[in-house]
Specification:
Length: about 400
């Protein structure tokens, strides 16, 4: 067997090389309501305090705490209105939640603590100045830095932007990812099978994981194992996208043309990775853009994406935290594996509230073509190289891909 010309490097080393090459994308302005999941590229400060006026937090009566006895009701202040009511000594005003505290008053008494009769209100609980009021700037001070650059915008942050009147925000855009499948054997999903042919699964699965990682997939279809067509599609895609993602054509076959393309038109930085699945995962820079070439086997393509491309996409989108949570899990059954490389076995992790433990069982056959091994998997078990037997009950490290169900 001819030796591969590409050195086999550990996953961590490949990842470090990749992360050295990719940088957060130049920032753009977007409407704040479209910014869910995006990362701020500016500091957002409050122009005004929140609240901007002393605000009643209950429905009831605005009073002076120092007064005693029943107070005379002199008017009302409803939320959203501004009545020129002034509460003097021995007086009270009817006020609703969210309304401005009337001038002269220093406390709100909730309606439940009052008895109203003959235009007077009696208070049945102790009152102190400041009760049931949010003073000006209670939540956010004027000029306060509310959301620093680097913040990931999720619903609470989108709500804060709305509160601050910040209708346009500067963010790192979603990376546009050109996705294509390579292979003479590939059919579109709607096509009937023919001898020697398989349907293209990778393009659709990879576009899905790109979306889940916050990227925008751009579909460049199927490319045949032929240099001209491959080059034509890559060159058409490159100016339209921030990063390229292919699958297939990175092994040692005669028609595996993607590695040679990258080496010839750019710089090939990762040619083989010491992992199973995903040994032929390839990374390079072409035309100044990151180029990820995944193997054709669907599991290899998706696990390769998970381990090496997802962190890179997150970095391009401005994220600081690039990695999934990990935790030790207890094997429900023994696992044997080939100790020549690190293996990422697809598994279902389950939480047991009764004894506060996490257990894992694999999803069945772990062949790299068996896409069903990722169905129902919420974790990748990391089986290190150099050890072939993992007995039932032993603890192994797991990368958590999704929520963990309970027993
Ligand atoms: P390759 O990496 O091109 O040598 O392909 C490895 C295996 O993956 C072969 O059995 C291919 O038929 C299969 N394969 C390649 N691309 C795809 C794809 N897009 N969808 C499903 N299977 C694929
Ligand atoms: Mg192929």
């Amino acid at each position: 067997m001819p030796e591969s010309p590409y050195p086999m490097i550990p996953v961590a080393e490949a990842l470090a090389m990749i992360l050295r090459e990719v940088a957060p994308l130049p920032s753009v302005d977007v409407p704040f309501a479209d910014a869910e999941g995006l990362v701020l590229a500016e500091n957002v400060r409050a122009a005004e305090p929140i609240p901007q006026f002393p605000t009643a937090t209950v429905d009831g009566f605005a009073v002076r705490a120092a007064d005693s006895g029943a107070r005379r009701i002199i008017g009302a202040q409803m939320a959203g209105e501004f009545a020129a009511v002034r509460v003097g000594a021995g007086e009270a005003a009817r006020v609703t939640t969210g309304a401005t505290l009337p001038a002269g008053a220093d406390a709100m008494v909730m309606i439940e603590d009052t008895i109203e009769r003959d235009g007077m209100v009696e208070i049945t609980a102790p009152v102190s100045a400041g009760d049931n009021i949010r003073p000006v700037g209670n939540d956010v001070a004027a000029g306060q830095m509310v959301l620093p650059a680097g913040t990931v915008l999720h619903p609470p942050e989108i709500g804060l932007l709305a509160m601050l009147g910040k209708t346009t925000v500067r963010v790192h855009p979603r990376p546009k990812v050109g996705v294509m499948s390579t292979g003479d054997e590939l059919l579109e999903p709607h096509e009937p099978l023919a001898p020697g042919k398989v349907r293209d699964a990778n393009r659709f699965a990879l576009m899905g994981v790109v979306r889940q990682a916050g990227g925008l997939p751009v579909d460049f279809g199927i490319v045949r194992d032929e240099t001209g067509g491959l080059a034509e599609t890559i060159e058409r895609a490159l100016p339209q996208v921030d990063v390229l993602l292919t699958s297939g054509g990175v092994s040692m076959g005669q028609r595996d043309l993607v590695k040679p393309y990258i080496a010839e038109h750019g710089v090939l930085l990762v040619g083989r990775v010491n992992s199973r699945p995903g040994k032929p995962v390839t990374f390079g820079m072409v035309g100044g853009k990151p180029f990820f070439a995944m193997p054709g086997n669907p599991v290899s393509a998706l696990v390769g994406f998970e381990n090496l491309m997802r962190p890179a996409l997150l970095k391009m989108a401005g994220y600081k935290n690039l990695f999934r949570p990990r935790r030790k899990v207890i094997l429900e059954h023994p696992i044997r594996h080939h100790p020549d490389r690190v293996e990422y076995q697809r598994a279902t992790v389950i939480f047991h509230p009764a004894d506060d433990t996490f257990t894992a069982r694999t999803t069945g056959g772990q062949g790299s073509a068996r896409l069903l091994s990722l169905h129902g998997a919420n974790a990748l078990l990391i089986l290190p190289d150099g050890q072939s037997e993992f007995p039932a009950g032993s603890a192994v490290e797991a990368i958590l891909l999704a929520e963990v169900g309970d027993a």
